[in-house]
Amino acid sequence: MSNDTTKVTTAATFTELGLITPLLARLAELEYQQPTPIQAQAIPSVLAGRDLIAGANTGSGKTATFALPMLQHLSQQRRAGKSSGSKNSKGNFVTGLILVPTRELAKQVADSIKSYAVHFNGEIKTVAVFGGVSVNIQMQALRGGTDILVATPGRLLDLISSNAIKLDKVKTLVLDEADRMLSLGFTEELTALLALTPKKKQTLLFSATFPEQVTTLTQELLNNPIEIQLQSADASTLVQRVFTVNKGEKTAVLAHLIHQEQWRQALIFVNAKHHCEHLAEKLAKRGITAAVFHGDKGQSERSRVLDGFKAGDIEVLIATDIAARGLDIEKLPVVINFNLPRSPSDYMHRIGRSGRAGEVGLAISLIDHEDYHHFTVIEKKNKIRLEREQVEGFEAAEITSDSILAVEKPMAAPEGTGKKKRKKKKSVNADIWSGYSKPE
Ligand code: AMP
């Protein structure tokens, strides 16, 4: 990461956290100059073997928070000749198990761990398993066990039932994005998996939000944990803005912003798979090429699109929540909510794709009459309050409490009549980055 001035950091250095040389050397190569707040607060306790509950979003540096101590423990156990992992073991055991909600996150976490482990000279084996691809290759990869396994719950259960892996020797269990896992309906799978792990183990739980299900899980699972609660989105680096637009004008406003702001890349969220293609077609008519990413796409197509977006070849990506969860795209300048997410916690997850690891980011929500009430719910639940703004040239008809009520009943006026009713209210300057430093 190169933009040092915008990083969220604390005073501690990685050396002070107690990490060993092969990890410190790698962090220096990756240009991680200082630990992020969660790393600074959690790593010493995790290294000491404590359980952890962390309220942290993706973008906070949470992967390194569990991955670095896990690698350090494994390396030390290996040196002491105690590892039950891959190299010296006959059984299909795993020592460090990381459960994640989606295949994208599984791959991403495994890639990060492999990257952090490069100076262990291949002595630590990491495997990722997830659904949607052939199980045979994953079974082969698990032969002889693995030190670290990153898995989605459903596929892991399949692999356990075909004896490809056993959880009896898990020493560290990580539940990453626990709220996501539970909200995606993995509760039963999770319960079944947890029952297969030994009672005595270290457990680290990361969650952006703490709905009841997660709280119950933490009470059942964790033993005298340290608790760290970070702000879910860092207000100093992630700028959130909300623009009111007339019904039927969202596409025009979106195209206008994309043309005008010339973002290097933009991630646009919609609420349904078919909306992805539909919006891509409408943008194409306005001269904007966009790729789409959702659950109906095959695995190879999803990987191709994701790689293209990560490499910067794809500039505009339209995605649904399920597909874009956990994506880590370095320095994504902007996330746009074309449709509002249904759940307030999804709002935080979506906007967390920008402004990662303390870099400046921008999250824009486009709201029309029908979204207005829901957006206030999102704000309330997430304890934020944003000023309603307008895009110059696309000023929306004033939203009154009457017009909000009218949405609950059938709309009084036919679509597209908003323009005539436009009232010139306070409008924002076209340069929506004014006042903020624009990322490179
Ligand atoms: P995560 O929250 O784990 O998904 O991490 C978000 C991004 O921040 C990833 O691209 C990491 O490589 C990066 N990152 C994590 N820790 C640091 C750090 N201390 N300094 C700079 N970048 C970091």
UniProtKB/TrEMBL annotation:
Keywords: ATP-binding, Helicase, Hydrolase, Nucleotide-binding. GO terms for molecular function: ATP binding; hydrolase activity; nucleic acid binding; RNA helicase activity. Residues 43-228 form the Helicase ATP-binding domain. Residues 237-405 form the Helicase C-terminal domain. Residues 12-40 form the DEAD-box RNA helicase Q domain. Gene3D superfamilies: P-loop containing nucleotide triphosphate hydrolases. Residues 410-440 are annotated as: Disordered. A motif (Q motif) lies at residues 12-40. SMART domains: DEXDc, HELICc. GO terms for cellular component: cytosol. It comes from the Bacteria. Pfam families: DEAD, Helicase_C. Belongs to the DEAD box helicase family. This is RNA helicase. It comes from Colwellia psychrerythraea. The lineage of its organism: Bacteria, Pseudomonadati, Pseudomonadota, Gammaproteobacteria, Alteromonadales.
